[in-house]
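Worked example (supplementary).
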Amino acid sequence: MTCLLCEKNILPEVTWRTALYPEAKVICDACNELLVAIDGPRCTRCSRSSTKGNCLDCIHWEKTPSKDSLARNYSVYPYNNFMQEIITKWKYQGDYELGNVFKKTFRIHFKRMIKTTSKAYVAVPIPLSEERQEERGFNQAAMLAEFLPIPKANYLERIGSEKQAKKSKEERMKSANPFRLKKSLNKPVILVDDIYTTGMTLRHAARVLLEQGCPNVISFTLIRS
Amino acid sequence: MIEKLTTSLYLELVKRCEGKLLLRKEIPLDEDLFHAFLGQNIFTPISSIIKTPFIKICRRCGNRKKSQFSNMYDFNKKRLIAYCRNCIQMGRVIETEPLYRWNGEPACWQKHESACTWEGQLTDAQTKASETIRDAILQQESALLVWAVCGSGKTEMLFAGIEGALRQGMRICLATPRVDVVRELLPRIQEAFSTIPIQALYGGSEEKRGSSQIIIASTHQLLRFEHAFDVVIIDELDAFPYHADTSLAFATERALKTSGTMIYLTATPRRKERRKLQWNQLKHVFVPTRYHGYPLPVPQMCMCFSLHKQLQEGTVPRAFIRWLCQRENKQRQLLIFLPTISLTEKVASQIYTILFNHKIIKDASEITSVHASDPERERKISQFRNKRLLVLVTTTILERGVTFPSVDVAIIDAGHSVFDEAALVQIAGRAGRSAEDPDGEVVFFHDGKTNAMVRAIRFIKRMNRLGGYTR
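After joint prediction of all chains, the assembly is encoded as:
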């Protein structure tokens, strides 16, 4: 096997365990060490590393006049240079295969989160605009949702095609809701996306879902930046 | 439709697209116009990934490795489609999207009489090499290897050849595996040919068109070209990643026209090239002397027991400290090479304390470390060049292509496998490069000689012997 990130050869370790239950590694140990998940105390609402229980951003969200649409966010990884490199290659250059790097950890952390919340959730990936989907060939959020062991529902759709990554925080806060629901859902929803930055996109999506009669919306994201 | 384009726009388009294999999004035309061009067969689509029962081949980078191909699910076609991961940083090559080749009339490159504005003098050895290069280009010989020691003025030897090629209206590409070298070459070539437009292409360069008559490029960028140049000059032929990555050799050979001339420049040819020279399969010219006429500094070896243990603890060997304090010429700057990135920062702080205690430097800002993934790499290197830094601790990224006028060089743990023969010769070649200070100390600190070290020293001594300095 070749490591997906550094293209070095992976030498499979042979022990009784791996001989009986062979596991296919997609990245080498050196790269795996660089991919560290968020650990230690974190904000209970948005998963940012924080010792205070709730971070400043979340306190701000609570104070907004309309009720906060997103109940809670769980992220797996913090954002750093190494992660940025992978995401650039995966999302923007379109190396579809790189999504598989996160598969195992994403699942493990999902089970860890779902323990604390009830089951019977439906996963809804954040959609791309049609134009961007055409250009990229795949939707990274849908790919992440495929990793999860719960039913998926591609009920959201995005109108217009503005890039969030290029905007400042203020611009994001003011932007109009770009989502529309194709079909209403009456089950609790887990929104799946790659990055939680300000949480604006996820909240827009959650608002649309709540307005159409969805009881509860939480989100599960790969990265908290 | 096509007639609507003005002549100047059309000519620009020809220069941008001729001799390349382009993705649709790299062609600067809107959809209607592009279809008109396709209809007239000015752009020909060719399949981007060749599929045989056993292997796939990427048409752009020549990749055949199975691990470097992957599949993604296409929702429109409801099936898996293959894409190439090897050259993905230049835009994804995907099975369903063809590459386009310019099939219209070829670009007409201007003929320039005496384009060279460089007024320096060449030494006898340089003149000989420079004439050989020019003759090879003018007589359209297929390949020539220029073997010239570090600091012999390789770039200046090219000027006569480039001038001759420009007189014939040829298109020229100067390619090198190292991005640092591209950045260093651009101002030098531009100064020597001040009236000719020159573009530099590398990952992250502002210039992306690649439409000028002279192009300076990193070898990766040549993946886009096909039969585009009359002359391709490859500087630092033996540098990483060129010798290790077969797709780069594939790309440079394809970028050359069938009647074109390939010129390889190197100070340390690998065994493969040396064997070709021995068997007379490759024409070559040899320059064993530096431009200032002084011999290459010969490295000293210095044994340090328990070197590895000390490095792990984050201290430096005693012999190194002794050398640090007793250098002949303390005015010289210091370049210290280490095998790994993690060591550079540790050792840099250690060296700072030593130098500070011996009152050789006064301030922490006079010493720093740099490595390949350092975001401030360019700034630090230029600071060292401007002599605002006294000591630079580095990995092998600075082994070649960079010139500092007056430095002493130390390699700590020279026995490490990253320091192969070529790397050691190149590193030793950083010392004594200016005519004002043609000497410099080079010391290998090691805990056991390796073949690479012995061979590197033997190589340098041989070059000096061939240059006529010693018997």
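Two points are worth noting when inspecting this output. The CA atoms of residues 14 and 107 of chain B lie 6 Å apart. Chain B touches chain A at residues 67-68, 70-74, 83, 85, 88-89, 91-92, 94 (CB under 8 Å).
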